[in-house]
């Protein structure tokens, strides 16, 4: 049986700016944690204002933990000479929910496609090497509903299994939201599901 993959790697905060130079061209690299395409757009808009005199703002991003979506953009550089080399580094470092942008100031000397691929790849690599990459778990959230009289039963399991409670409303009709690592989710669901007068459902 295949082990369930329930971890992914990402960055928590914006990376430091990294500069790579080649034949008078300057390449500034940035990495941002992102969750949506709107996040991507807003970061690129800010960089275009910051580097309004630059020639190209090339980028790649990857979103998602189990189903991934990605995009690579050459922004006017020759086809596949910028976006894909950047995306290649995202794959190489095995990170997701990340946007890498490389801003280029043209230095007057053409680098050729090979030179461009190397410059964009190296800049992306530099940014990732200096980013704080960490591993996170893929979690499933459950809502547990029960009467107050069953409180001890529920809390005992939460304590025994060391479960993470995200929210609780404890009245006559009690509701607790727990977050469980994906690989443990089915067994935890079954424990609660087998209990009399206790309802559990996936959120």
TrEMBL record:
Impact N-terminal domain location: 23-128
InterPro entries reported in the protein's UniProt record: Impact, Impact_N, Impact_N_sf, Ribosomal_Su5_D2-typ_SF
Domain of life, source organism: Bacteria
Matching SUPFAM superfamilies: Ribosomal protein S5 domain 2-like
Family classification: Belongs to the IMPACT family.
Protein name: YigZ family protein
